[in-house]
């Protein structure tokens, strides 16, 4: 494998998309852990209602973040990611 092959491979990887996916995987893992513990270990209906409200807020925040990210023009930012 030559240096040119490595440049071709890294030239085709979209690092901004990888960063975006990584951040939101961490986000949804965090949301799942909170909701799981509220539902599993909560006594009575109050923690389950709070978990449902928390999930609705997480979905709204996730949707707003994706919409906001899609509206950003990455060409105007000085980010050294290939493809932008």
Overview of the molecule:
The chain has a domain at 14-71. The chain has 84 residues and is mostly helical. The protein is elongated and about 60 Å long. The model has no long low-confidence stretch (mean pLDDT 79). It has helices at 3-12, 15-41, 45-71. The relative contact order is 0.13. Helices cover 76% and strands 0% of the residues.
Reported for the largest beta sheet, the result is:
none
Overall mean confidence score, pLDDT: 79
Q: What is the number of helical segments per DSSP (H or I, 4+ residues)?
A: 3
Secondary-structure element sequence?
Answer: HHH
What is the number of strand segments? 0
Question: What class do helices, strands and sheet pairing give?
Answer: mainly alpha
What would you call the shape? elongated
Helix and strand arrangement:
Elements: H1 3-12, H2 15-41, H3 45-71
Which descriptors would you attach to this protein?
about 80 residues; mainly alpha; 3 helices; about 75% helix; elongated
In short:
The chain has about 80 residues and is an all-alpha fold. Helices cover about 75% and strands about 0% of the residues.
